[in-house]
Specification:
The chain has about 500 residues and is mostly beta strands. It contains 1 helix and 36 strands. Strands 4, 5, 7, 12, 16, 17, 18, 20, 21 and 23 form a 10-stranded antiparallel beta sheet that branches. Strands 1, 2, 24, 25, 27, 32, 33, 34 and 36 form a 9-stranded antiparallel beta sheet that branches. It is elongated and about 80 Å long.
């Protein structure tokens, strides 16, 4: 196999007699992305979805939707990957201090999605948004739904527990669902407060709308993560571009300070009055070779970009970008290492990186009954919102599919734009011959043993790189560089 530009490193082991040598079970390749490696790409630069026009038009206005007299804040607010807000500055507060806000609200009959709450203007990048305590309002036409949520400085989040806004039973599914509040034409009273002593000292957030109450307890250890809040106001939900709707607030009180909006309060504003084209459109993947230098490699050029979860029901919604390998099996060692940088991570998102099969991992299925693609051995950056994002060993081999769970302590990877070193090591002899994967990130180590029988699945890996999941969701922006990886077994 011809390998231009790449440095090949052959691991040699001695044989018993004389000085004769033979090739070991693995040969490795190193790629620095000093120039485009021309790896194989499938749907990785989505052409079917164009960038979407996003319009934000909110702030102070002379209208009177949410109060009895002219003057309020609000307007057209659109979900988007790019942050926007209109907010009053407050003295920086933490999880150790009480917080409170209240007022009235009104909304139109178009769908909307917006956060009302405390946040940090310096850390707006994604949803769940770090350093936030918020009331999330989701308009669906005739009604809007309300949720309580928070996110720490370490991207660990929670919401709506143990008591949420009124729920009703869906007669068709039997599931409990939010009841919702009347949208168009109604004025609602709301409040939001944080008590650092609530929940046995772990912290609790309480919200009310029209006398209905929801309580959110901070998760174990989340208060210790810390947070810093320097604004209160309206903020966009930063997932991906979507249609917007109207919301207005009036007679707002923030930590004892009253705003009746009889005149322009000249609150701090960012991106709240503009129209632009956003390329963060679900599920518009845009990853592969990039001339950028975020991951901290030896020079410019790297692998990565915007990665949405895939959807196995639609072949065009699954994507990959990978180097071609001579097929690898689970009978020999498989390794990889390099640098990684997670720049943005939205809740309910996953990036898969590692070894996979060009045909089996990209199969189309009529139902989303599995999250991981078939014949995959590598790393996942998934994680529940309560824990943020993990850099976790993961596999799906035949009927066997597993990732390291939170109790096993996988390394956390933060969407903070920092470069971190990582390693991946699959050993077929580990775990009594069942095989095991060891992953390190910034020196922190975790091991995942393969299920008994997983090695006998017959899985073959002929690609190394990035591949999407089989269940759809949100996006991450991530980059890799200075990669060394197994490309052949002899």
């Amino acid at each position: 196999m011809s390998v231009p530009r790449c440095k090949l490193r052959l691991l040699l082991v001695g044989v018993a007699a004389g000085f004769a040598c033979r090739l070991s079970a693995a040969a490795e390749r190193t790629e620095h992305f000093d120039q485009d490696p021309n790896w194989e790409g499938r749907n990785h630069r989505a052409a079917a979805l164009e960038p979407q026009t996003v319009r934000q038009d909110f702030g102070y206005t002379g209208t009177a939707h949410a109060g009895g007299k002219a003057g309020e804040i609000g307007g057209l607010i659109s979900p988007a990957g790019e942050g926007a807000y209109y907010a009053t500055e407050i003295e920086t507060a933490t999880f150790e201090q009480p917080l409170s806000a209240s007022g009235t609200l009104a909304c139109g009959d178009r769908p909307f999605h917006v956060l009302v709450g405390f946040f940090n203007a310096d850390t707006l990048n994604e949803w769940r948004t770090p350093n936030t305590i918020a009331l999330r309002l989701n308009g669906r036409g005739d009604v809007f739904f309300a949720y309580v949520e928070y996110c720490t400085a370490r991207w660990r989040a929670g919401g709506d527990s143990p008591q949420s806004f009124p729920m009703v039973s869906n007669q068709q599914t039997g599931r409990m669902e939010p009841q919702g509040f009347a949208a168009k034409g109604g004025v609602h009273r709301w409040s939001l407060s944080y008590d650092p002593g609530g929940n046995d000292g772990n912290g609790a957030v309480t919200a009310t709308i029209d006398g209905q109450t929801a309580v959110c307890h901070l998760g174990q250890g989340h208060k210790h993560d810390g947070a810093g809040f320097n604004r209160f106001g309206l903020m966009t939900v930063m997932k991906s571009a979507d249609t917007g709707g109207e919301l207005w607030l009036d007679d707002v009180t923030v930590i004892g300070r009253k705003f009746d909006f009889d005149e322009d309060p000249r609150w701090d504003a960012r991106g709240n009055r503009r129209t632009y084209a956003s390329s963060i459109v679900r599920p518009r993947c845009d990853f592969g070779y990039s001339p950028t230098h975020f991951a901290g490699g030896r020079a410019g050029g790297e692998l990565g970009g915007l990665v949405f979860r895939g959807d196995c029901r639609y072949p065009e919604k699954m994507a990959s970008y990978a180097d071609r390998l001579q097929p690898l099996s689970l009978d020999g060692p498989i390794k990889a290492a390099g640098k990684v940088c997670l720049r943005r991570g939205v809740s309910d998102s996953t990036m898969l990186f590692g070894f996979f099969n060009a045909r089996e991992s990209m199969l189309s299925n009529p139902a989303q009954n599995a999250g991981l693609p078939a014949s995959f051995l590598g790393i996942s950056t998934d994680g529940p919102s309560r824990d943020g994002f993990y850099f976790s060993p993961t596999y799906r081999l035949g009927d066997h599919s597993r990732s390291v769970n939170a109790d096993a302590g996988p390394p956390a990877i933060y969407p903070d734009g920092k470069s971190r070193d990582w390693t991946f090591d699959y050993s077929p002899a580990a775990a009594g011959g069942n095989g095991a994967i060891t992953v390190t990130l910034a020196g922190r180590r975790v091991e995942l043993e393969l299920d008994r029988g997983a090695r006998q699945s017959g899985a073959r890996f002929d690609r190394f790189g990035m591949v999407t999941t089989w269940i759809d969701g949100n996006s991450q922006t991530i980059y890799f560089d200075d990669l060394t990886y197994t490309f052949r077994q002899d």
